[in-house]
Task: structure prediction
Amino acid sequence: MTKTDENLKAAFAGESQANRMYLAFAKKAEEEGFPQIALLFKAAAQSETVHALNHLTVMGQVKSTADNLGTAVSGETYEFKKMYPDFIADAKKDGNKPAEMSFDFANKVEQIHAALYQKALDALKAKKQPAKVDYYVCPVCGNTFEGSAPDICPICSTLKEKFMKIE
Ligand SMILES: [Fe+2]
Ligand SMILES: [Fe+2]
Result:
């Protein structure tokens, strides 16, 4: 790996994190009654996404959809089999309840993501378009549903009407 390869990786991570952080800051600015500052955070967040995607493309990490689904399945599987279980154990040891809960939400949902990606990959391998369905995401734990949202989130008990429909 060249120095530039390492730098691309670091820059992709940094820009990706800045994108999510600025969206969180935009939400906070809205709550505090600063719509113009919220808009500035959203604009910069969008710009950081452009940078992140440029870096990722230069890294050659955006491949065919079949390859990308494979990458997604592996990443999610690693997270729920190894990364989050370890993180949850550490959070317990550290007595950090909020972190334990945050890791636990992610851990449970990554299993669902892995299964959804695997299903799409299987359809693609069978030369079929995946069935046309809507997706719904829980705003509290990230739980992800196909077809319709549940009456109550089985992971965090959030009610159906709060779920976000993905457009
Ligand atoms: Fe995931
Ligand atoms: Fe949830």
About this structure: The chain is about 65% helix and 5% strand. Strands lie at 135-137, 144-146, 164-165. Residues 65-94 form the longest helix (30 residues).
